[in-house]
Amino acid sequence: MSTYAQKQGFGATIWDYLTTVDHKKIAILYLIAGGFFFIVGGLEAMFIRIQLAVPNNDFVSAGLYNEILTMHGTTMIFLAAMPLIFAFMNAVMPLQIGARDVAFPFLNSLGFWLFFFGGVFLNLSWFLGGAPDAGWTSYASLSIASEGHGVDFYALGLQISGAGTLIGGINFLVTIINMRAPGMTYMRMPLFTWSTFVVSALILFAFPPLTVGLFLLIFDRMFGGNFFDHTMGGNTIIWEHMFWIFGHPEVYILILPAFGIFSEIFATFSRKRLFGYSSMVFATVLIGFLGFMVWAHHMFTTGLGPIANSIFAVATMAIAVPTGIKIFNWMFTMWGGSIKFTTPMLWAVAFIPSFVAGGVTGVMLAVAAADYQYHDTYFVVAHFHYVIVGGVVFALFAGAHFYWPKMFGTMLNEFLGKITFWLFLIGFHLTFFIQHFLGLMGMQRRIVSFLPGQGFETGNLISTVGAFFMAVATIILLINIIMTTVKNERVGNDPWGDGRTLEWALPSPPPFYNFKQLPLVRGLDAYWLEKMEGKKGMTPAEPLGDIHMPNNSFIPFVISLGLFVAAFGAMYRAETAWGIPVLIIGLLITLGSMAMRSIKDDHGYHIHKEDLMDDDDNKGVKA
Amino acid sequence: MANQQPNSENPRIDIEYRRKKSTEEMRYQIISFTLMIFLTLVAFFAVGYDGFSGWFTVPFIILLAVIQVIFQLYYFMHMSHKGHEAPALFLYSGVLVGAITLLAFLTIIWW
Amino acid sequence: MNWLAKGRLLSLFTLMALVLAGCGEPYVSTLRPAGEVAQSQFDLMVLSTVIMVGVILVVTVIFLIVITKFRRKNENEIPKQVEGSHKLEILWTVIPILLLLVLSVPTVAATFKLADVSPMDKVNEEGKTDALVVNVRANLYWWEFEYPNQEIITGQELVVPTDEKVYFNLIASDVKHSFWVPSAGGKMDTNTENVNKFYLEFDDQKANEAGNLFYGKCAELCGPSHAWMDFKVKAVSRAEFDQWVDDMQTAEEPQAETALAQQGEEIFNQSCIGCHAVTPQDGRPEQARNAPNLANFGERSRIAGILEHNEEELKNWLDDPETYKPGNKMTNTYGDLSDEQLDALTEYLMGLKVQE
Amino acid sequence: MQAEEKFTAETWPTAPERATLEGKNKFLGFWLFLGGETVLFASLFATYLALKDKVPNAEHTLAKDLFDLPLVFAATMLLLTSSLTSVYAMHHMKNFNFKKMQLWLGVTVLLGAAFLGLEIYEFNHYVHEYHHTFTSSAFGTAFYTLVGFHGGHVAFGLLWIVTLMIRNSKRGLNLYNAPKFYVASLYWHFIDVVWVFIFTVVYLMGMVG
Ligand code: HEA
Ligand code: HEA
Ligand code: CUA
Ligand SMILES: [Cu+2]
User: Fold this and answer.
1) CB-based contact D205 B61, cutoff 8 Å
2) ipTM, 2 dp
């Protein structure tokens, strides 16, 4: 079963990826799938912007618009941003703590396949009678009333991919707690690892409410339940709470890893250690903690009453403090440093003003009484695209350029990278800055079109033009990726020259067992410390020995496939004869493959010391 | 990765001693089980007995449930043993998030 | 806010207010507040914007210094590895906290003030309130406004007196919507299971500037025609309002004057009366009132909330409501109408007026 | 390798479930999972409490008239006892006594199955005697969802433990399966923890009103 030292054909490579349990390959899978869904979500965004370019436009119909809008939000959040973040976590975090692998390689692969099948399921709705159309928030009264299967696709698809995310979160937590290399204390962990840790904890506690909420929705829509039917005693506000108890932490699940990536980039390209490391850690934890206390700021106009609104308003504002600490620490990391404006650094630098602009509008939204005006207008749309695009997407682009060599062993072209950056930056501000004013001038969000004569024309046109800049920028990035891959110029372990953390001590890409010998960590920025002492690499913490590796497995794919099949059965259960059998078959596939996993012992295999010895680090990457 | 984690147990540890320890622990388990049964009985009686008002009974039986669960966690699930710092941290975080959820649902979901 | 009332801060505020107030149309923009509620929300916006602009300025200044001064000049330079600075860190922890305190006090105050609907609950001897109360019922793409004390009902166009508080009971009859009159004040959701209450106030002078007609919107996604679930607010003086109420209360069964109108009435009574009432005192229960009341349709300013109020558009609407509001509840509830029938109905409907 | 090493009572580690890295990971990962489950059940409890006695009209049975305390008491005793028997099983696991461990696990499974039987009887009773069904009211939906989720956990737990027992019946204890047994017993205790709140919050508080 070993994939060690084999030359592979195309079919074999595919099979390898379908069965891989190697965190670095799973990272690549996440990158490809997440990147694909980003393009899909981006195309949906383009449709939105084209439709809204001029008043009374009929580029898309009203019903279709609602589907596009819902799928844009859902796809971007669940199927693009989160998986892309998971890509970097998988690729980098285990290396950063000096681990040979994650704690549960099998579950890692299961997490990916669940996400993937959930996402595919959700998107198949386009071809099977219509996508969900109740907004990414799927508020209960509308989502119950929505006809067809759109919302069923939403509920079942997110349920499946949500399970994958939860599994991923637990896996990262255990990896960080149990598998740090000797000397890698908590307070020596790089910030990206810290943010992975906090985010995984957020996932652990935020996804169960979503799971429950989705179950309630599924029960009501598909099994005659009455949770949200007020004529039967139900209450739609339950959904709103459940969704936002998940939904608010979710936005910090998106942004904290972005903060982590930027922390690494700022330190690297300023050649300075992170300013105020311990308060950065503290702020990350605090943001995560406060993230659970503020969800009702999305419900100020629901009618919770002034006491609840005031409490949640003040709690929300509090988050500005730890976030501010981070902003200033980043700027003072650069202060006195030696800044090199590489592409990743450009993204990082541009992130500061962009994100601060989005963050402060967040605080404005937290002013409950004023939010009665902002809520559900383009002001909110502007706010969250400023934080999400200006924070998360910038970080993903930065991370893609920064970690590309570590993941693939080649460098993206810096010139094209900079073009992508400038086009995207300009497009981003053009698109979203003006939306603040549109909102204040009275334009609600989620409208398929607007009537002339309200003063919305110019603003919307500008916004649409901006979106095209972003699309072109994204296309240039794709070209860059293709060119780089075709050229295939290999780079060494520390291609940026300024790497600080452990991953840069390994070849690019690292051998599948990561570390031949676990490194001894002697402080923060472990690799930098060694470099400053004139050493080439890390000092090993153990003698060379056999390495235990897990076997590849096709089971995660099959488990996820089973749920995918079962979801179709569940959905068409009521109107077709084949629904129930398919549901049962799907569940049997899943349970059967789970049983197989637990019945067949899988102890993995060993790489022998002797094989490691002739394996030269720099060309040791054959898998 | 087995070579990363040498077995920390001392193989010469006195088996008799271990047996004794473990029997002793089992005795604690039985005691906590008895207490749990007792608490359950009290709770059922408190509800069955008409003399108490709901204002007393409800907090009272919830308190009993919490005590009982603490027994479960610390004795049956060994959270009193060492090496349970991370489990405790995450379990209590879960309890906190859950408690906030419950509080919200009891106060700001009306009627 | 006395403590602000001097010095440069004030001028900053005025400047901010001016910049913002330059935006939008007076009948729809939150930046052109036309009443007490919108005004207090606007004040909060200005206050928070000033603080935020301050924050952004500080960040920008440090940012610009950093990215200009500390560029790498020499490939071999290794800067000093600074761990941090407690003094600085305390500084940027404490200052934001202070700024947020400044912001949260008026926030909480305004939140409580805007939630004060106690006059709604004060009932006089007749079992009515002295305050003006309107029951708003939101339905898929149309609005019903019931004046419980006056015992009249109207649809799509809310009529209110200026310079006094108008209290609202808000509920939805199908899915959730949200009631929003941007220039008069923030929105409030109409939930399906419970009544929400709040108040608005319309300034007389501002109403004049806006042509006495404010735009109202649905601000919660509610289906395909969410974008077109508009309504209008006619803000008139108390005297005019009283007159209107009186006319509404005394309105009788509509009399079709011309022959064409009578023909229209006939068609209407066959196909439409099951849903649409034509008198302002509709005694039917809520569930039966499943279409806008048309008693004063001839005096409206829009058809179905969005179309120009003229015969042409009315015919278009009656001919095919689906093109204008996809998914609306009127489509396909009556047979195809011929051109003559359309003419007749139009004549009849345009004649539905309560004021002379 | 270490995981398949043969042990005797003397060489068997004191904390066999955490003696290997895999075991340690499993142990911690499972505890974290339980942290998430806590939130999951808290959300279900919250939903139930928000919808308790919310019925469309006066003809529907409310919690007060519905619940049958003796039955619940019996179920509670079964589940509490099964928690103790699984403690016994782990006690023997740590003493490297495979036979006794299997025996006590078997008892646990029987008690759990009896509990499940009672629950099914109870649901059936409510449906037929009181027309209190999943679809009859929001109260009904919330009740069956919360209690049913717990019942589902019990059923899954039974399946899991039985699979473990059968799979390992010929092999005895080793460091590869010890964590599996341990984790399954943690799961079983957690089910009991949830039940303690169900009988308190749903049934007892339901009777108080
Ligand atoms: C990555 C995602 C992300 C992030 C990081 C944030 C961050 C914040 N968000 Fe945002 N938000 C969203 C994503 C995000 N949000 C989304 C998607 C929605 C809409 C969902 C929907 O309805 O579809 C939303 C909606 C939303 C609302 C509801 C609006 C409405 O619907 O009416 C509110 C209200 O309080 C809010 C507040 C905040 C606040 C206070 C922060 C804070 O965390 C920001 C903190 C940062 C700063 C403040 C800047 C840096 C700080 C300093 C430089 C220090 C000094 C600053 C001060 C003293 C102010 N957000
Ligand atoms: C991660 C989250 C995320 C991201 C990255 C984005 C990115 C963008 N969003 Fe989105 N957005 C949301 C999350 C996000 N959004 C959410 C949650 C909502 C709310 C939904 C709801 O109300 O329910 C929303 C809503 C929303 C609206 C409001 C719709 C409405 O209320 O009616 C608008 C309108 O302008 C918009 C625009 C955009 C634009 C222009 C981008 C751009 O940045 C996108 C840029 C990317 C591209 C343009 C890629 C395109 C690439 C190509 C075209 C390549 C060509 C193809 C090939 C070569 C094959 N978004
Ligand atoms: Cu009604 Cu949107
Ligand atoms: Cu939020």
Assistant:
1) yes
2) 0.94
